[in-house]
Specification:
8-stranded mixed beta sheet; N-(1-d-carboxylethyl)-l-norvaline Dehydrogenase, domain 2; alpha/beta; 329 residues
């Protein structure tokens, strides 16, 4: 693939990591962020404050100016928060229509839109997505990672594959963009519940059951977004679910553990110090389940803890007291 000028929107740990990956592949990358203090630090130190031993290659530039980032750009890589995607794309929609790769994971609250659906409503360029089990802390160290890419346009999907794939970062194309986006969003909710279970000392048996039933819950609700349930058995569903529910790097899992320790949702989020996407997505998924009359008890219980002040112990007991039915997969 020829050298491109690429704008990375967002300089969190994931945006920084992907900018570095693309820079190491020879692309000219402009990584944009709103926070002037973060931009200044990245420009000076060339490393991310939340990623140990990270060093950006010379082909990666940091800027707080969208005009600079978008000038002559050939494609966009989005890495802002799920709640921040709409305002960012409303801001840039009149400036460019180059292809975009979404890397955030979530469902918009109020509309129930998956992030590719949201962006396609307000942005004219081709829209694709990159998702899967991929903690920035390991990708930046070039540890083996496998993810999935998808797009509404199959040609752009193949270009995303070529853009990101490296010997250590394997990228598998999948035509089910709704399924890829949905799995990445829903696993964050189950990860919060997993952290709560571990924080309460529920044990490995309970955690195995939680992940299994969580995946079942994800598959059931996926049909509400016209996704293929079998996509949830792959890297963007089961793969991302496992790593997010078990890794020390997972913010959603850490949030759940803090909730079990007695922190309020806001107190836990502040202690983590970064966006925790499952908080935002949980409300949207709960609304989606109710709108389609699809039972999603793990999501409902997590929502009650996050938004209604339910004691995590009571939530776990409520799940355990549900009527036992024949297992359907």
């Amino acid at each position: 693939m020829s050298r491109k000028k690429i704008a990375c929107l967002g300089a969190g740990t994931w945006g920084f990591t992907l900018a570095c990956l693309l820079g190491h592949k020879g692309h000219e990358v402009y990584c944009w962020a709103r926070d002037p203090l973060l931009v200044a630090r990245l420009q000076k130190e060339r490393s991310h404050p939340k990623l140990a031993d990270s060093n950006a290659p010379a082909s990666v530039h940091f800027t707080g100016s969208l005009d600079v980032a978008l000038s002559g750009v050939e494609c966009l890589v989005e890495s802002v928060t799920a709640s921040g995607i709409r305002p960012v794309f409303q801001e840039i929609a009149s400036r460019t229509n180059v292809p975009v790769v979404l890397t955030s994971k979530g469902i918009e609250r109020g509309t129930g839109l998956l992030l590719p659906e949201l962006v396609s409503e307000i942005y004219k360029g081709p829209v694709g997505i990159l998702s899967g089990p991929s903690h920035a802390e390991e990708v930046i160290s070039q540890l083996p990672t496998s993810v999935v890419c998808s797009a509404y346009d199959t040609e752009w999907m193949q270009e995303i594959h070529e853009l990101f794939v490296t010997p250590a970062f394997r990228v598998y194309p999948n035509t089910d963009i709704a399924g890829v986006a949905f799995g990445g969003a829903m696993k964050n909710i189950i990860a919060i519940a997993s952290g709560i279970a571990d924080g309460l000392g529920s044990g490995d048996n309970a955690k195995a059951a939680l992940l299994t039933r969580g995946l079942h819950e994800m598959r059931k609700l996926s049909v509400a977004k016209n996704a293929r349930p079998e996509t949830l058995n792959g890297l963007s569903g089961l793969g991302d679910l496992v790593v997010t529910c078990m890794s020390r790097y997972s913010r959603n899992y850490r949030l759940g553990k803090l909730l079990a320790e007695g922190y309020s949702p806001e107190g836990a989020r502040q202690k983590i110090g970064m966006a925790v996407e499952g908080i935002y997505t949980c409300a949207a998924a709960r609304d989606l389940g109710r709108a389609h009359n699809i039972p999603i008890p793990i999501t409902e219980g997590t929502y009650a803890i996050l938004y209604e002040g339910l004691d995590p112990r009571v939530a776990v007991q409520t799940l355990l007291q549900r009527a036992i039915k024949q297992e359907h997969l």
